[in-house]
Amino acid sequence: MSSTIKFSRRQAMLSAAALPILAGVSGTPAFAASHGAPAQPIARRFMLGDMEVTTLLAGSMPRDKPQTIFGMNVSEEEFARVSAENFIPADAVQFYFTPTVIKTGDQVVLVDTGLNAAGTTAALADAGYDAKDVDVVVISHMHGDHIGGLMQDGAPTYPNASYVTGQIEYDHWAKAGNERFDQNMRPLAEKTTFIKDGASVASGITAMAAYGHTPGHMNFMLESGGQQMLLTVDLANHYVWSLAYPDWEVRFDMDKEAAAASRRKVLGMLAADRVPMVGYHMPFPGAGFVQARGDGFHWVPTSYQFM
Hints:
CATH superfamily of the domain at 5-102 and 189-301: Ribonuclease Z/Hydroxyacylglutathione hydrolase-like
CATH class of the domain at 5-102 and 189-301: Alpha Beta
Strand order of the largest sheet: 1-2-3-6-7-8-11-12
Strand content: 25-35%
Distance between the termini: 10 Å
Number of strands: 19
Order of helices and strands: EHEEEHEEEHEHEEEHHEEEEEHEEE
Largest sheet: 8 strands, mixed
């Protein structure tokens, strides 16, 4: 797969400056996603055929007691052993929130909107985009860290955009009495196209069902110039405690059995076909490869493969 990563001098400096902070999981987080715009927004751009793909670090924050989130169906001893084997602490985790913006032909497509508008628009600006430039906003599912940036001060954050989301997902949340959905997604219903598995979202972007995390959770396959990349969104929310061990239960998966089945199916396909992926919560820039290993999988983060 031959692609080209394009960095600005500012992006390279920001990446280098952020590394020491992002490496840790204690102290002040590098990006306080819950307090408006990130201190140092970062955008990572590369080419997939003729398609310009940019991952956006819209926020990051540490959390303690990770086994209350991941590996809920394994013992503390197993969780600690696996963590130690992978050189990560068993008592803390760093979360990343990574929407993706895609320039395909004459359209700018944003997939998911982060926890809030400020964080995502700041990262978009670092990538050279204004909120007014976004033509299509795609929502993978309705959790707050994906729809939180749809509205700002009671108005749509992306004033020129149309919206796309799954019919199953929307219908579920429309009946759920969820305040974030009612405030951010419901007002946009008249501008929204509701899709099913296999639908075309935009040129070169196809929806793929990956149910379980939520009732209608979607992945998105990007294709251009004979190359592919899958936006896996929240299919696997940690590169060890979820991706490497797909049967480990995750608190945020609404149907844990279905979520595990989706992980095994999709990750197996990625490993077999050597298709790269972008994971919404993977360590930034969120892109990497999946390798089959034992009864699970191994995360191989990108380095210079896309030069």
